[in-house]
Amino acid sequence: MTILGLQGVRGGVGTTSLTAALGWALQQLGETVLVVDASRDNLLRHFFNVDFSHEQGWARAMLEKGSWRACAWRYTPDLDLLPFGQLTQAQLQRWPETEHSLIEFAAALQMLKASGRYRWILLDLPADHTLLTRSLISVTDNVLSIATPDANCHIRLHQQALPEGAGVLVNGRALNSQLQDDIYQLWLQTQRNLLPIVIHRDEAVAEALAIKQPPGEYRADALASEEIITLANWCILHYGEEALHEGR
Predict the structure, then answer these.
(1) In degrees rounded to 5, what are phi and psi of residue 117?
(2) Residue 164 has what DSSP assignment?
(3) Distance, CA of 62 to CA of 75 (rounded, Å)
(4) Per-residue pLDDT tens over the stretch 165-176
(5) 111 CB contacts (<8 Å, ≥6 apart)?
(6) Which of 30, 38, 100, 115 is deepest in the core (most CB within 10 A)?
């Protein structure tokens, strides 16, 4: 079993959509998957047809002394979702105190991993370095750092530290951008942990969120969906339980 974190080097690089898409792709390949929203934005649920009015999630449940397990949603027999929950204004205003009371969720994830219920736990991590985010990264087996080949991400890859051993995944590459092509070619030469897979910009991903489905469910024939299936196979080979046991 593998806990895999996905974290953008900045906001807006498509981390949440990738988490939803990768979760869907892995269960299409016969894997059992839990996708977990670890961000206060609480957006991951919208890829899985959860209504706006549903405010419950693991973080809110923990703050209100409830059961975080009761907040899970069954999307398919092999794919479950655990939303973050819609925090109240008072909870957000007291975030330092609120955050501190949530870090025990990292231990809960370790217990869930030990149970063997899922082959994969995917964490949709915010692009920050808060106490909660660091505690969750500490229990991951691997992290994918998501970057768009633009000047902003290029600068950040040079001036901010990534999680130890993180692989860099290029997302949202535009086929008709000379600048993005130049930056990507530079990354091929300078980024040692760059994954050999690129997810191209695809309108089907934006449409999937509007339809409230994972991209691969909405448009299995879309370019991004096909590339994410390739990513899922790569993750199974390099990050899966067998790969961990073999020390790869």
Answers:
(1) -65, -35
(2) T
(3) 22
(4) 999 999 999 989
(5) none
(6) 38
- Look up tokens 């910009």; give the residue: 201
* CB atoms inside a 10 Å sphere around CB 235: 25
For residue 190, pLDDT over 70 is answered with: yes
Asked if residue 85 lies in contact with residue 55, where contact means CB atoms within 8 angstroms, the answer is yes
Closest CA to 117 of 71, 66, 77: 77
* DSSP per position, 45-89: GGGGT--TT----HHHHHHTT--SGGG-EEEETTEEEE------H
Kindly give the residue spans of alpha helices, DSSP state H, lying in the chain. 15-28, 58-63, 89-93, 95-100, 105-115, 131-137, 151-159, 178-190, 203-211, 215-218, 223-239, 241-245
- Give the distance from CA 37 to its chain's centroid: 8
| 3-state DSSP assignment of residue 229 | helix
Give all strands of the β-sheet with 167-173 in edge-to-edge order: 73-76, 79-82, 33-37, 120-125, 2-8, 142-147, 167-173, 194-200
